[in-house]
Write the structure tokens for this entry.
Amino acid sequence: MTVTNRMRGVLYRLDASIRVEGSHSRAIADLVEQEWRSIHPEEPIIRRHIGVDPMPARAWATAVFASGTPEESRSDEQNAALTLAATLTDELVSADALLFAVPLYNFGVSQHFKAWVDMVIADHRMAAGAEPIMAGKPAVLVTVRGGSYRPGTPREGWDHATGWMQRVLADVWQLDLKTVEFTLVGVNPALDQFRDLARRQRAEAEEQAIRTGRQLGAAVASVEAVRTAAPLRSPGLDRTAV
Ligand SMILES: Cc1cc2nc3c(=O)[nH]c(=O)nc-3n(C[C@H](O)[C@H](O)[C@H](O)COP(=O)(O)O)c2cc1C
């Protein structure tokens, strides 16, 4: 019999919408989460609602300067900022899969998501040049926007958020990232002429979210199966008893 002291199938979910009611990014991410839940019904979900509970404004600069300050000389504020950076990183590291729901705001990345990423990178384990400790971890980015910036549209290239988020999550942190994108054309009355397109895009985004959630759950379930068959020996990760 295999006994493990670490929970399996923990999902981390981050929401960056500044609203709770009526949020499309939450609704699409809910579909991913539901599919995950169908495969991992019991395991906890670690949640961060950074759009309504943002990072403290001074925390990032404080953490950056604290890193260059000898431990014994750090102020309480510096220690608190570094503790926050470590806590955010621990949450990511302890999860088996990650789900980020981040809308487009003002043609750029949500300030709350940028502040959160900056705080995570302020932790020494996530600093530039450190070994990527989350390489290969399955992750989903759900991103929602009001208008289309696809090739051929008048504002092609104006979405300065999605590429940046993918750069950080897939290239810097080396997550195994899938992106679900949804454009709201047709929800906004000014774009009524696109109502059919909107309906189609919504259906496509929902299907994609369901498919991606299933894949996310299955990816971790298959890793669990392998681990159970051949338990890891590293202390602190797995403890096995016969
Ligand atoms: C303040 C604000 C700025 C926005 N800026 C943009 C934008 O630049 N481009 C865009 O396509 N949509 C923009 N939107 C639309 C949002 O991306 C869209 O409403 C999205 O659904 C918001 O996420 P939520 O539904 O999860 O709250 C903006 C919305 C708000 C509230």
